[in-house]
Write a structure and sequence with these properties.
five-stranded antiparallel beta sheet, 10 strands, alpha+beta
């Protein structure tokens, strides 16, 4: 994704757009920027969704899906990705910042949730038919997640008819590389029917920058009692889940953790679930 952002690095372009022509102008803009890289062959670009921007007049967010082939020497690979173009009557931009708060407007956008977001395979705790559905994107080594997630899990476990928690992995490997191995181990635990161990990963004592898979697994066994082999970590089923979660996060514009959606809406306060706790 970072490569794509570099390819779309020009922030603001003035134009004389009329809204009737916006779709084609946005598509042409994205194609043009991508083609500036000689190693990119654009297969298709389309508008996937148009989102209103709460509190921002005269602008809309266009979710653009692109299918490209990236060539490097003799190697090539197909990449599907999404990006956002902000559009007003006369301007296009790849980023908008709230001048007062310094917050990126991307953080408040509400995308359409994927049809399979409430899949049973991602249900961690709570009843599938609970009154309120929570979707969490988390990293067990994120300091904020380590403070937040245990309390959230406790609340859901104690109020299963009120809340259902659907858990998605978003390892921030660039910040703490060890998390990539840990989230795989968490999925192995789920396959083994040991999902209760997942909570222990939020208090595990480990160097976040550790990359040695063998050493990480030794720490996991010491801290949780769960013995896992490298082969289990890279089981096709695990690979499928990790890839699916990464794609889902991308489609929902989730880039940080913890991020939580409550009943289909992003909860920027992260505290709305507390109102569902029975007194």
């Amino acid at each position: 994704m970072s490569l794509m952002l570099r390819l779309l690095s020009i922030l603001i372009i003035g134009s004389s757009l009329a809204f009737a022509a916006v779709d084609s102008d946005v598509i042409d803009f994205v194609k043009k920027k991508l083609r500036q890289n000689r190693g990119v062959e654009v297969k298709s670009v389309k508008i996937a969704e148009k989102l209103p921007i709460p509190g921002v007049k005269g602008w809309a967010a266009y979710v653009v899906e692109a299918d490209i082939e990236l060539k490097r020497g003799k190697e090539s690979r197909r990449i599907d990705f999404e990006t956002i173009i902000f559009v007003s009557r006369a301007l296009m931009a790849t980023e908008l910042i709230d001048r007062k708060t310094g917050m990126s407007i991307r953080s408040i956008l509400q995308p359409k949730l994927p049809d399979d977001i409430y899949a049973k395979s991602h249900l961690l705790y709570g009843d599938m038919n609970a009154k309120h559905k929570l979707v969490l994107f988390s990293d067990p080594l994120c300091p904020f997640c380590r403070m937040y997630v245990p309390d959230l899990i406790k609340a859901v476990k104690e109020n299963p008819k009120e809340m259902a928690l659907f858990y998605y992995h978003l390892p921030l490997s660039a910040i703490h590389p060890a998390s990539d191995t840990l989230v795989r181990a968490m999925e192995v635990a789920k396959l083994m029917g040991r999902k209760e161990i997942i909570e222990k990963f939020y208090s595990i004592k480990i160097d976040p920058e550790l990359k040695d898979e063998k050493k990480i697994l030794e720490i996991v066994e010491k801290e949780t009692g769960l013995k896992i082999t490298p082969e289990q970590l890279h089981d096709k089923r695990i690979e499928k889940v990790i890839l699916h979660d990464r794609i889902t996060a991308r489609k929902m514009f989730v880039t940080g953790t913890p991020t939580i959606f409550v009943d289909g809406k992003k909860d920027v306060t992260r505290d709305r679930y507390k109102s569902f706790i029975k007194k």
